[in-house]
Amino acid sequence: MTTLLRVETLTKRFGGFTALSDVNLNVAKGERLGLIGPNGSGKTTLINCISGVVQIDQGAIAFENRDISALAAYKRAKKGIARTFQIPRPFHSMSVIENLMVPLEYIVHGLVDGSNRNAVHAEASELLHRMRLSDRTNAPAGQLSQVELRKLELARAVAARPRLLICDEAMAGLATKEVHEILDILMELNASGITIIMVEHILQAVMRFSQRIVCLTAGRIISDGAPVDVMANPEVRRAYLGS
Ligand SMILES: Nc1ncnc2c1ncn2[C@@H]1O[C@H](COP(=O)(O)OP(=O)(O)OP(=O)(O)O)[C@@H](O)[C@H]1O
């Protein structure tokens, strides 16, 4: 087992409030990890720390055996860490494919002069196909449904060709059929070699997706293991399921 991501004794404070306390987490290359916990337990803060949206106060984060604790978010993205946001914010007046071509041109290919637009267009089309969004290629992003927005958000993250993809509630508010559609896409991305951390409240989805589940409560990991074992843990049931 090769470790892709290592989080060591991570502590994050907001003023006098400790949002994460002494968190240790290893994620293996190729793994599908579910991150659960009650509202306010620190899930988003943890992925913000990993992706570099916020800086940590103590501890260390290593990706592919390199310390990335002090790196800016865009540098972590370049190293292969991508994440989706709970609330997708595409450019509404631009078409779906244009929303993908912008990051592909400027971030991935480093083009600023519009050269090689055909190759970028082809890559964006291929991404939309993988996200089952081809039929909305030329639609303005502002006209997308919830599930289509989630797919575009995933496509945007995958455009950066990540080795680690962190999904923050990619299925919130979706119908059951749509949840399964997103899960199928995530499974395919994982099968193509992308390690995935999924933050999710929909337990059925987390159970179907995850090879391993980590449960956070009040900024601490209270359980880490096989999904059935974590769900059977009395502390998890009390904290997360209220039983
Ligand atoms: N920028 C911030 N400033 C101050 N407090 C913050 C900040 N970000 C998060 N917090 C606090 O840290 C705690 C953890 O929040 P976080 O959003 O990480 O929880 P979560 O588990 O993702 O919750 P949810 O499931 O509701 O999204 C909460 O008490 C929250 O209010």
UniProtKB/TrEMBL annotation:
Taxonomic superkingdom: Bacteria
InterPro entries according to UniProt: AAA+_ATPase, ABC_AA/LPS_Transport, ABC_transporter-like_ATP-bd, BCA_ABC_TP_C, P-loop_NTPase
Residue ranges annotated for the ABC transporter domain, each copy included: 5-243
Any Gene Ontology CC annotation: plasma membrane
GO biological processes: D-alanine transmembrane transport; L-alanine transport; L-isoleucine import across plasma membrane; L-valine import across plasma membrane
GO molecular function per UniProt: ATP binding; ATP hydrolysis activity; L-isoleucine transmembrane transporter activity; L-phenylalanine transmembrane transporter activity; L-valine transmembrane transporter activity
SUPFAM superfamilies: P-loop containing nucleoside triphosphate hydrolases
Keyword Nucleotide-binding among UniProt keywords: yes
Residue ranges crossing the lipid bilayer per the database entry: none
Alphabetic keyword roster: ATP-binding, Nucleotide-binding, Transport
PROSITE patterns: ABC_TRANSPORTER_2 (PS50893)
PANTHER family: AMINO ACID ABC TRANSPORTER ATP-BINDING PROTEIN, CONSERVED COMPONENT OF ABC TRANSPORTER FOR NATURAL AMINO ACIDS-RELATED
Name the UniProt record assigns to this protein: Branched-chain amino acid transport system ATP-binding protein
Annotated source species: Rhizobium leguminosarum
